[in-house]
TrEMBL record:
The Protein arginine N-methyltransferase domain, residue ranges: 216-321, 357-415, 493-597
Free-text function comment from the UniProt entry: Arginine methyltransferase that can both catalyze the formation of omega-N monomethylarginine (MMA) and asymmetrical dimethylarginine (aDMA).
Span list, region Disordered: 1-50, 324-367
Name by which UniProt lists this protein: Protein arginine N-methyltransferase domain-containing protein
The keyword Metal-binding appears for this protein: no
Biological process annotations from GO: methylation
Organism listed in the record: Brassica carinata (Ethiopian mustard)
GO MF annotation terms: histone methyltransferase activity; protein-arginine N-methyltransferase activity
InterPro entries: Arg_MeTrfase (IPR025799), PRMT_dom (IPR055135), SAM-dependent_MTases_sf (IPR029063)
Keywords tagged on the record: Methyltransferase, S-adenosyl-L-methionine, Transferase
Gene3D superfamilies: Hnrnp arginine n-methyltransferase1 (2.70.160.11), Vaccinia Virus protein VP39 (3.40.50.150)
Compositional bias annotation for Low complexity: 324-346
Length: 600
């Protein structure tokens, strides 16, 4: 496919990328709802829903729900981790806007039946109960539903909030509902396909004229310029401690920009007014519409600058069923493509100046930051654009056939992709005129051949806690294969230490936070929070003030004499005497390495 227009700089092509599992983003996972257990029984405060409601006429039988795939199970399981929910609740713009939306629509909620799709910790369900809901069904397929049920009990709302542990597609609610509320939005709005569950709930249970919060959603895109990001990731390699490493730049581009990046940009990074990629009316949207979304765009740059890619963000609107998208104060003409990035915006929690204005939550670059940030699809190489230059083409967002929770992104831009690892190392040597001295061997130390003895071995082999990753074994192998007697090893020695530590700030941030969340007692979350926060060693920075005693040596290593077998298991006894009165939260580990002559 070719782009829809010709560019003065010769840009012409396409790019196809995938927004994959969030672990590849290197950040906390976002959007998922735990492993689905018995979908018919669930938690429901100890009994099935039909038992709680008494004998009621069941709704019309629905067609068979889609099967729960292995991808779904993994997705649900990731949301049993408390850190994701902590991140979302601590996003004040998100949580406070939802709370305000509930209170602004209290007349629709009071005395009515509500379903919360993907309830997580149950905070939105409790907000609805506080607004006077007659009954709230809190549905979640994640094991977080166990804690949600305890949170409901702790707040004395078991008579109003019924936690259902299972998928929306599987659980049974034997009555129609007046309101559906859900925080379904993922990165780039549609990533992770949570909207499909909202549509399913709507089609199964919502009364005609019922309320859906949020009611509308709009995804935007615009060209962006981000020279600081490019310089930090790419230009860094031009000169590294006086060494020309520009041969690394192509690989750096591939690694930095091969996947969409979730990060925060500002309005200054945006080159044009944004265009609408997709506008969604939650009352009418069909699941089939989410399979693939295609939009043509035509931008006119407002400045001369390097264009580094496209940015995506979204708004969601909370309006009554009869409200029109045109009434929103954040987008003057949603279908016409005008911007939610208006200079007059007063933040992402847009207050209503009169009853006809809708409340809007925005993730725009000009709005206060949210945990969604913005999603940037970077080019491998920037494109120089002139002021008033037209940039046009199309974008397609489609669900992955292998995993519907992944999203493929197709843009009219292209760049060849291949592995550069071996070539890049060689090219760095060449660029510095050292090919006669530096010989790059591509392979394991255990496999490559060197037909002479060596005088020096140097390696930065240390991992977290010194021994994590066991790179020292390769140094020992190199020593035993090639090092001359009396040869030098750098570093020569290493020592691992441990000591008791006190870290009340860390504990308070991760655990005590749950004692009171927007006036809700969520202390039932604390045990899970402890498990999730502390089940694995944490790599972080502490200061000397956090250390309660002088450290003890766990292991001292002489790289000239250490044997590989010594690394299989290291045991040390310790005895500490605290130097202060303080809460002890755990043990800290750190290491030193020493660079000395063989005889030292």
């Amino acid at each position: 496919m070719q782009s829809g227009g010709d560019y003065s700089n010769g840009f012409h092509g396409e790019v196809e990328k995938q927004l994959p599992g969030l672990s590849s983003f290197g950040r906390a996972k976002r959007r998922s709802r735990g492993v689905a257990h018995d979908p018919r029984g669930g938690l429901t405060n100890g009994v099935r829903v039909s038992d709680q409601l008494g004998e009621q006429k069941p709704l019309e039988t629905q067609k068979s729900p889609p099967p729960c795939t292995d991808f779904d199970v993994a997705y649900f399981h990731s949301y049993a981790h408390v850190g994701i929910h902590e991140e979302m609740i601590k996003d004040r713009a998100r949580t406070e806007t939802y709370k305000e939306a509930i209170m602004q629509h209290q007349s629709f909620i009071q005395g009515k039946v509500v379903v919360d799709v993907g309830c997580g910790t149950g905070i939105l369900s409790i907000f609805c109960a506080q607004a006077g809901a007659k009954r709230v069904y809190a549905v979640d397929a994640s094991d977080i539903a166990v804690q949600a049920n305890e949170v409901v009990k702790a707040n004395g709302l078991s008579d109003k909030v019924i936690v259902l542990h299972g998928r929306v597609e599987d659980v049974e609610i034997d009555e129609e509902v007046d309101v559906i509320i859900s925080e379904w939005m993922g990165y780039m709005l549609l990533y992770e396909s949570m909207l499909g569950s909202v549509i399913t709930a709507r089609d199964r249970w919502l009364k005609p004229g019922g309320l859906i919060l949020p009611s509308h959603a709009t995804l935007y895109m615009a060209p962006v310029s981000h020279p600081d990001r490019y310089s930090h990731s790419i230009d860094f390699w031009r000169n590294v401690y006086g060494i020309d490493m520009s041969a690394m730049m192509q690989l750096a581009k591939q690694c930095a920009f091969e996947e969409p990046s979730v990060e925060s940009i500002s309005g200054e990074n945006v080159l044009t007014w944004p265009e609408v990629v997709k506008h969604i009316d939650c009352q009418t949207v069909k699941i089939q519409e989410l399979d693939s979304v295609t939009a043509r765009y035509k931008f006119k740059s407002m400045m001369r600058a390097p264009m580094h890619g496209f940015g995506f963000w979204f708004d969601v609107e909370f309006s009554e069923p009869a409200s029109s998208p045109a009434k929103t104060t954040s987008a003057t003409s949603v279908d016409g493509g005008s911007s939610s990035m208006s200079p007059s915006r007063e933040g992402n929690q847009k207050k209503r100046s009169n009853p006809s204005d809708a409340l809007v939550l925005s993730t725009s670059p000009e709005a206060p930051p949210t945990h969604w940030q913005q999603t940037i699809v970077y080019f491998y190489d920037p494109i120089d654009v002139e002021q008033d230059q037209v940039i046009e083409g199309s974008v397609t967002l489609s669900q992955s056939k292998e995993n519907r929770r992944f999203m493929n992104i197709h843009l009219e831009y292209s760049s060849a992709g291949r592995s550069f690892v071996k070539e890049s190392a060689m090219e760095v040597v060449k660029a510095n005129g050292l090919s006669d001295k530096v010989i790059v061997l591509h392979g394991r130390v255990e496999d490559v051949e060197i037909d002479e003895e060596v005088d020096v071995i140097i390696s930065e082999w240390m991992g977290y806690m010194l021994l994590y990753e066991s790179m020292l074994g390769s140094v020992i192998t190199a020593r035993d294969r090639w090092l001359k007697p009396g040869g030098l090893i750098l570093p020569s020695h290493a020592t691992l230490y441990m000591a008791p530590v006190s870290h009340p700030e860390r504990y308070s941030h991760s655990i005590d936070f749950w004692r009171n969340v927007y006036g809700i007692d969520m202390s039932a979350m604390m045990q899970l929070a402890k498990q999730c926060a502390f089940e694995e060693p944490s790599v972080e920075s502490i200061s000397g003030e956090n250390v309660l005693t002088w450290p003890e040596v766990i292991k001292h290593i002489d790289c000239q004499t250490v044997k590989i077998q010594e690394l299989d298991s290291v045991t040390a006894r310790y005895k500490f005497k605290s130097m202060m009165r303080a809460p002890m939260h755990g043990f800290g580990f750190w290491f030193d390495v020493e660079f000395s002559d063989p005889a030292s």
